[in-house]
Write a structure and sequence with these properties.
The complex is a heterotrimer of chains A (about 190), B (about 375) and C (about 100). Chain A is an all-alpha fold and about 190 residues long. Helix content of chain A is about 65%, strand content about 0%. Chain A has 2 domains: about 120 residues, NADH-ubiquinone/plastoquinone oxidoreductase chain 6, subunit NuoJ (Four Helix Bundle (Hemerythrin (Met), subunit A)); about 35 residues. The longest helix of chain A is centred in the N-terminal third of the chain and has 25 residues. Chain A starts with a helix and ends in an 11-residue tail after the last helix. Chain B folds into 2 domains: about 60 residues; about 300 residues, no CATH class. The model of chain B has no long low-confidence stretch (mean pLDDT about 85). The mean pLDDT of chain C is about 90. The N and C termini of chain C lie far apart (about 60 Å). In chain C, about 70% of the residues lie in helices and about 0% in strands. Chain C has a single domain, classed as Helix Hairpins. Classes of the chains: A mainly alpha (about 190), B mainly alpha (about 375), C mainly alpha (about 100). At the A-C interface, α1, α2, α3, α4 and α5 of A face α1, α2 and α3 of C.
Chain lengths: ~190, ~375, ~100
């Protein structure tokens, strides 16, 4: 029974993914793009479940829909742009860009069907234990490096968006708690001069 | 695939089971919310030395029915400039992950929607999906107070996910499985996980209070803050869904998680007594434990004042996250050093819990003293200057 | 086995998603939308990795391990990318990449 449902589910999910991705590129409002991107991520999680990688599907939703989409929505809401005509959303090289993407994409999509899967496919849903064992034994060093990368990204993002604050008017001369006493000015603020 | 009862075709039986499960889950949430709203009002009233609703029905039992009818009958009002699609979609986006989390809660010995082997990860995932609906609700209301309220609520939710998930990971280290059913099965006796990892329970309790927007972390939904935050423009059943149903559903799920991970879930006396009475008794034990925690949530709501947004974020990032990380590191180290026994982990956890309970008031006292001294010095300056 | 979805279908879908994302990066002006299209490309790569890992019978789910690292990197990249976009927006209130061309030769 599952054999019949699987191609149908794949077809539905694939259509949803491609349609939503096209929507991300073509939508006129940024918020619509952001939500269609979240929809793409959800359908990708469904695709991972179809492949039998349930843990990866859970991580996909947790990280992409739960965190990255919220980050992008924050970015969208803090950078409001005046509404413009639809044609102004695309750069001058739009026809060239679309042509290149299509010309490069279609042959790859056709060649992709030459791949064939083997006979011994791992059982559905059994991917948690091998994945966890691999990460913490064979790939423990990249795991630690990834955590350092996340720390660096976190610190970098915080430094980049810190506001340059002038000393507040009510602080007296002995007040050592104002911001300018306790940290250096961010470099990005100097770019103007 | 097994054929269904009366020899129904397996495909149809699977689809029918899905339908029955969704209907049951909706039934559970709607009636649970009904019961919990009434319970909350009565419990709050009892703690505040008043009576609560008593007009509608005996002891006011039908009060929530009346409220729900009123909400459904309200005019479907939508402010003109709000974005239609997002405004209407936001309550659904907030409600659906909560409904989907009921699938993996182990209600009884064979009463569980789906025994996923990543059950706890699935619950954490759905908890993080609820943030999206709140941001969209705040944005779609076309009201700058709603937007700021929605973003603040999202910041609170994503901040408190971290200590919550870290506490769950600590519990998983001790139980050894992510599947909710297996976690319940590893705690058969009276010595459930609460005796081994109480600090993880305490931190998860606090994180759960913040994740479900309950007092003392209910800044996003308080009526006096930012004109009710992201809920300002919602009225009628939209408000009912976003606030009442989702919040009480989330509270039920989170208390169910606590009951399963630290108190043995459906374990209790009389589980093995028979094919019908066993599961029913298990269901009873699970429900009793969950509702005990829900009552504690309501007790906390009646007792503690609300935290400001900066106090709540400071508490999360400077207190809870280092504490949960320390707990995780210590538990993991002790589990590797002494792989056969849980006693060192238990000792370390109780010590850390004691340090937390004693240390936080001490640090606060010191901070308060420093602030008072600075204030005294500043007033002395001002008085001396003129 | 014959009614299962063939591996080529997953790879073709991954390629389609990747090239749609690439078209988005080349075509759109808004910096945040460009970031979103980069995320689409990363997702396409993830799909290809998981499909190969599950369907070619690789041991120990190594493709999925790589996918976990791609998740980490994508999250870090979005955070820093958005920080840069916000800092840019603060200096001049635009996120239009066609208007930020002081370094163009």
């Amino acid at each position: 029974m599952l054999d019949v449902i699987e191609p149908i589910l794949f077809g539905v999910l694939a259509l949803a993914i491609v349609g939503a991705a096209a929507g991300v590129v073509l939508a006129d409002r940024v918020t619509t793009s952001a939500l269609l991107m979240a929809f793409t991520f959800l359908n990708m999680a469904g695709m991972f479940v179809l492949l039998g990688a349930e843990t990866i599907a859970a991580f996909q939703v947790l990280i992409y829909v739960g965190a990255i989409t919220v980050l992008i929505l924050y970015g969208v809401m803090f950078t409001p742009q005046a509404p413009r005509a639809y044609g102004l959303f695309f750069q001058k090289q739009t026809p060239a860009g679309a042509l290149i993407a299509a010309l490069a994409g279609l042959p790859v999509m056709v060649i992709a069907f030459a791949f064939r899967d083997t006979a011994n496919i791992p059982p559905r849903g059994g991917d948690l234990v091998p994945l966890a064992s691999s990460i913490f034994t064979d790939f423990a060093f990249p795991f630690e490096v990834a955590s350092v990368l996340l720390l660096a990204a976190m610190v970098g993002a915080i430094v980049l968006v810190k506001r340059e604050e002038r000393g507040s008017g009510s602080a007296g001369p002995n007040d050592t708690t104002s911001p300018e006493h306790s940290r250096a000015k961010p470099v990005i603020g100097r770019a103007r001069e | 695939m097994a054929p269904g009862p009366f020899g129904i075709d397996p495909t149809i039986w699977a689809a029918l089971r899905l339908l029955i499960a969704v209907v049951l889950a909706l039934f559970l949430i709607l009636n649970g919310a009904l019961l919990l709203i009434y319970l909350e009002r009565k419990v709050q009233a009892a703690m505040q030395d008043r009576v609560g609703p008593y007009h509608v029905g005996p002891w006011g039992l039908l009060q929530t029915f009346a409220d729900a009818l009123k909400l459904i009958a309200k005019e479907d009002f939508r402010a003109g400039q709000t974005d239609a699609a997002f405004f209407i979609a936001a309550p659904a986006l907030v409600f659906t992950p909560m409904l989907a989390s009921l699938v993996v809660l182990p209600f009884g010995p064979s009463i569980v929607g789906a025994d996923l082997n990543i059950g706890l990860l699935y619950l954490a995932t759905l908890g993080s999906m609820g943030v999206l609906g709140i941001v969209i609700a705040g944005w779609a209301s076309n009201n700058k107070y709603s937007l700021v309220g929605g973003l603040r609520s999202a910041a609170q939710l994503i901040s408190y996910e971290v200590p919550g998930i870290l506490s769950l990971v600590t519990a998983v280290l001790v139980t050894g499985s992510l599947s909710m059913v297996k976690i319940t099965e590893t705690q058969p006796g009276p010595f459930t996980n609460i005796f081994i990892i109480p600090l993880a329970f305490a931190t998860y309790f606090i994180a759960a209070l913040a994740e479900t927007n309950r007092t003392p972390f209910d800044l996003p939904e308080a009526e006096s803050e930012l004109v009710a935050g992201y809920l300002t423009e919602y009225s009628g059943m939209r408000w009912g869904t976003m606030l009442a149903l989702t919040e009480y559903g989330n509270v039920t799920v989170v208390c169910g998680i606590m009951a399963t991970l630290w108190f043995g879930g459906w374990n209790g006396s009389g589980i093995d007594s028979g094919p019908i009475t066993g599961p029913l008794l298990g269901l009873l034990w699970f429900t009793l434990k969950t509702y005990a925690f829900i009552l504690v949530f309501m007790w906390v709501r009646a007792t503690l004042p609300r935290l400001r947004i900066d106090q709540l974020m400071t508490f999360c990032w400077k207190v809870l996250i280092p504490l949960t990380l320390l707990n995780l590191a210590v538990t993991a180290t002790l589990l590797i050093a002494f792989p056969d026994t849980r006693v060192p982990v238990a000792i370390a956890n109780w010590l850390l819990l004691g340090a937390f309970l004693v240390g936080i008031p001490m640090l606060q006292e010191r901070r308060l003293r420093r602030i008072r001294e600075r204030l005294r010095a500043a007033t002395r300056h001002a008085v001396a200057a003129g | 086995m014959t009614t299962l979805v063939p591996l080529g279908a997953f790879i073709a879908l991954s390629a389609a998603l990747f090239f749609i994302g690439m078209a988005g990066v080349l075509v759109r002006r808004n910096a945040v939308v460009i970031l979103m299209c980069v995320e689409l490309m990363l997702n396409a790569a993830n799909l290809a990795l998981v499909a190969f890992s599950r369907r070619l019978g690789l041991i120990d789910e190594r493709g999925s391990v790589f996918v976990v690292f791609v998740f980490v990197i994508a999250a870090a990249e979005v955070a820093v990318g958005l920080a840069i976009v916000l800092a840019l927006y603060r200096n001049r209130p635009t996120v239009d990449v066609d208007e930020v061309r002081e370094m163009k030769g």
